[in-house]
Design brief:
By secondary structure, the protein is an alpha/beta fold. It has one domain: Aldolase class I (TIM Barrel). The protein has helices at residues 6-19, 31-44, 54-61, 68-83, 102-118, 137-153, 187-197, 226-239, 257-264, 275-291, 293-296, 306-309, 311-332, and strands spanning 23-27, 48-53, 90-97, 127-130, 157-162, 168-169, 172-173, 203-207, 247-249, 268-273. The protein has an eight-stranded parallel beta sheet with strand order 8-5-4-3-2-1-10-9, sandwiched between helices. Strands 6-7 form a two-stranded antiparallel ribbon. It is globular, with a radius of gyration of 20 Å. The termini are close together.
Length: 344
């Protein structure tokens, strides 16, 4: 079926919140990685989210151009076409757009959706992320208000972040000097975000609770999921059960299954998955190269093996490996078998 409409994406979030599960949000940067995500979601009978970073857009536009917007639009359009082959719902998101990049990235992408809507077509994107967490909270909220109003006009849900995720992702980074308290979004900050943004439109919220971008061994990252519960409880106590946040989990590599599952009980409906799927894609390619060394390379004047160095041979292996890892994410987040495709 086609990529989810705005109403279908809203229904996806509602279903996850009510059902106590979350969607893997898979960062993709190419035809092959998009196909891996689509295959995995279909195999798991799970709806899901495919997202593109600014770096993915640059990569997709070609080495001579590095046109972030053009590359991102191309990836999104490609996903719209490929998704038609499957029977699950897929939503499209952009990831980690920092404040100084937003005018040259988010603005034209929102405009591209507006142009499609004027032609009676589905949104190009259902969700955009503005990562203004590097700003003081008041400035973060002010900028988020601007973009949420713009998104709401086009039935796009805005993802915002308050607090700092450690590590680095597409230039958005915590540092060694980041105060420990900044890695944890306080209930007061969560309340301020809700009070400012809720009147403007629907949004999702990447509140931080010790998350760190990158790859770590289990137990190395010290998460405090109870931070999410404390913030939810504060907002619900003031505004009622309908005020529960749709929360997003960033920087999940190295988290234990118990920690992941705990966040689902506190309102997490989306978990970004990037580092783990990058490795899952590359690992079988490396194995192919080692096993087929004399076929991939023309060693000692030999001619090699075309079947071994044909990019389709090893990219297919990467696609299978990445799809398998996404399947694990669906199981971890309890989204397997819960597609609402065809119901909304």
């Amino acid at each position: 079926m086609p990529v989810a409409t705005p109403k279908q994406f809203a229904a996806m979030l509602d279903a996850a919140q009510e059902g106590g599960y979350a969607y893997p949000a898979i960062n993709c940067s190419s035809l092959v990685t998009i196909n891996a995500a689509l295959k995995a979601f279909a195999d798991q009978k799970s709806d899901g989210i495919i997202q593109f970073s600014t770096g993915a857009g640059q990569f997709a536009s070609g080495l001579n151009h590095k046109n972030t917007v053009l590359g991102t639009i191309a990836l999104a359009e490609l996903t719209h076409r490929l998704a038609e082959q499957y029977d699950v719902l897929i939503a499209l998101n952009t990831d980690h757009c920092r404040p100084h990049v937003a005018p040259d990235f988010l603005d034209p992408l929102i405009a591209a959706t507006a142009e499609r809507r004027a032609r009676g077509e589905n949104n190009l994107f259902q969700n955009h992320m503005l990562d203004a967490s590097e700003l003081p909270l008041a400035e973060n909220i002010e900028l988020s208000e601007k973009y949420l109003a713009l998104c709401a006009e086009n039935e796009i849900i805005l993802e915002v972040e308050a607090g700092v995720v450690g590590g680095e992702e597409e230039g958005a980074a915590g540092t060694e000097d980041t105060p420990a308290e900044d890695l944890y979004t306080s209930p007061e900050d969560m309340m301020a975000v809700y009070d400012a943004l809720n009147p403007l439109g629907r949004f999702t919220f990447a509140a931080t609770f010790g998350n760190v971008h990158g790859h770590y061994k289990p137990g190395a990252v010290k998460l405090r999921p109870e931070i999410l519960k404390q913030g939810q409880d504060a907002v619900i106590a003031k505004h009622g059960a309908a005020a529960e946040f749709d929360l997003v989990f960033h920087g999940g590599s190295g988290s234990t299954l118990e920690e992941i599952r705990e966040t689902l009980g506190y309102g997490v409906v989306k978990m970004n998955v990037d580092t783990d799927t990058q490795y899952a894609f590359t690992r079988p390619i490396a194995e192919h190269m080692f096993k087929n060394y004399d076929g991939v390379l023309k060693v000692d004047g030999e001619i090699g093996n075309k079947k071994a160095y044909d990019p389709r041979a090893y990219l297919k292996a990467g696609e299978i490996g990445m799809a398998a890892r996404i399947g694990v994410a669906c199981e971890d987040l309890l989204s397997s078998g819960k597609s609402i495709g065809g119901q909304v």
